[in-house]
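Example 3.
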Amino acid sequence: MVSKLSHLQVELLGALLESGLTKETLIKALSEVEPYVLQSESQRAINALQTEKGEPCPDIPNLPNGMGEARLSEDETSDDGEEFTPPIMKELENLSPEEAAHQKAVVERLLQEDPWRVAKMVKSYLQQHNIPQREVVDTTGLNQSHLSQHLNKGTPMKTQKRAALYTWYVRKQREVAQQFTHAGQGILTEEPMGDDLPTKKGRRNRFKWGPASQQILFQAYERQKNPSKEEREALVEECNRAECIQRGVSPSQAQGLGSNLVTEVRVYNWFANRRKEEAFRHKLAMDTYSGPQPTSAPPLTPHNSSSLQPPSALSPSKVHGVRYNQQPASEAESSSSNHHGNSSMVTTQTILHQVSPPGLEPSQNLLSTDTKLVSAPGGTLPPVSTLTALHSLDQNPHALSQQTQNLIMASLPGVMAIGAGETSSLAPAFTNTGASTLVIGLASTQPQSVPVINSMGSSLTTLQPVQFSQQLHPSYQQPLMQQVQSHINQSPFMATMAQIQNPHALYGPKSEVAQYTHTGLLPQTMVITDTANLSALTNLTPTKQAFTSDSETHTESGMHTPVSQAPTIHLQNQDTSIQHLQPGPRLTSSPAVSSSSLVLYQSSDSTNSHSQLLPSTHNVIETFISTQMASSTQ
Amino acid sequence: AGKAHRLSTEEREQLLPNLRAVGWNEVEGRDAVFKEFHFKDFNRAFGFMTRVALQAEKLDHHPEWFNVYNKVHITLSTHECGGLSERDINLASFIEQVAASLS
């Protein structure tokens, strides 16, 4: 298309384009340049060029002052006349009669065009510059609904009204162009209407995040939920650059963004809002788990009570029976809350796995902000352990990711964002390292599910991570936890045994025998064992391998390794240790096996006492787990 | 446009070494910096000048320059303060950028 250009012409063109000119601007400028190069040949050339580009009206008025806006109707017009401000014409702005006439001519031409095409142009211009519709409505007097429908759906609009719209469009383009042109120089010439029209809100429009900036922010959010001031400032620069590029403007003209300029404060607020959002989603997830009952201190309780009917006089032997009976209810519950019980657990773990220590901080924030969360005695413990567990899940990121995503979506609103990569706005942020987000959510939920544990003390905190996994079956967890707590004093072993053997007693208050079974079996729940097993708990924390080395089949159970390795960092109370059953991974592959392996696993590194405990519980757990798995597999 | 005040000694110590490192030299007898640019041919040289010119307009700060075929001599100084100012430093940096991209 380009005629043969000399090298110099190419160089000059390159220089022009490099200086921030856009192609459209250049073309428009060609017609405006008349006054400077007003020669018949150049005029013809310009016309030829324009028609070549499909210009419908080659009869560009020969403007005496060259400040007119040549409107190229088919192209989306970008800011015009940016660097191209004829110095001699600086004073002649919008209000000059020629300019007004020129604008009218442009509007006329637009009116003759296909309204839908012009509407598309106007709409994309609004999107490109993030201009709120309200601004258009305020200045044109059009009805906002009508305007929206016209721009989005092509609803017909009368000529008179379209004229008003196009007039606004023409003026706005000039205004924005000047905004950008003078961004670095201050306002040298009179701005037609100031930065933007004086709105009812005052001079400036409400700031709005552009898609480009949001993308950058979400990516940064994935990396770290709580950026420092320096990082925020870096993001400010990046976002403004992206916004300028979106508008076809050189990034050095960022000031021209006007009301949509990204500032450090705005970035700070964005991050704060995302964190709150996540906490809230997490809270909602917890609520979902708990069922429709109002969330009370033991979130699981309501859930349990609703789903299960704990027989008050169940003997241990009947526990199983109860359990199974309850299975359907719990199954229903779990299935209703989780699309894939296994996967959710898996995902949770996966999520945890991906969380990195830095993410603990935000999780802590979540914990603090989440009202339902019980304040953990060792504030850092639960999230850390949770995260650790998650880290261990890394073994099977792919296998779990899908499930995880699904489950997470189902179980935790926050998780949804992470796992599913669904439409949720958070999806982009979470698709990659959703784990971190999830973890946080999980971490926060943990306290909820096991409030008792927290109150118990450090030992309880270890349970928190378990909660996380238990979220999938919160009802189950709660009773266990509570019972555990009550028995912890006695001895870990005894507590566990007590739970197992006398679930009823333990669950008295809770009256959820079934829950007990859940908890006992749960891969999700933590079986309280000896202190020796504290190491197992510790793996919840930084070791990251919590879920990795499942003793046999499942990679996720990193409990193995970390258990042996992790010192009792997080388990402050040496009296109890909690075995973290790894529900997720196991469940997916072979529930029954997994549960058993879990149990076995935990005993692997623990002391004899632990092993003793395990076998007894193992069967129970196994059975229970199998059942659970079946139900959760829905 | 940037600040037009003459650079203080500390500022010079801070900023000029960078320029000196890339070839800008102080002019004898006046408070200015000078550099010679060579390009492959006139086109490149003039393309460079065009870019610099556009930026100069934007910054409202213009260089003193001379061009013969593929050589460009540029002297930077600020008239308002009678010496070097921040504007010169800015423009010099930009010129370096452009020259780098063109060579």
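Chain A touches chain B through 13 residues (CB under 8 Å). Confidence is low (pLDDT under 50) at residues 54-92, 186-199, 295-490, 503-634 of chain A.
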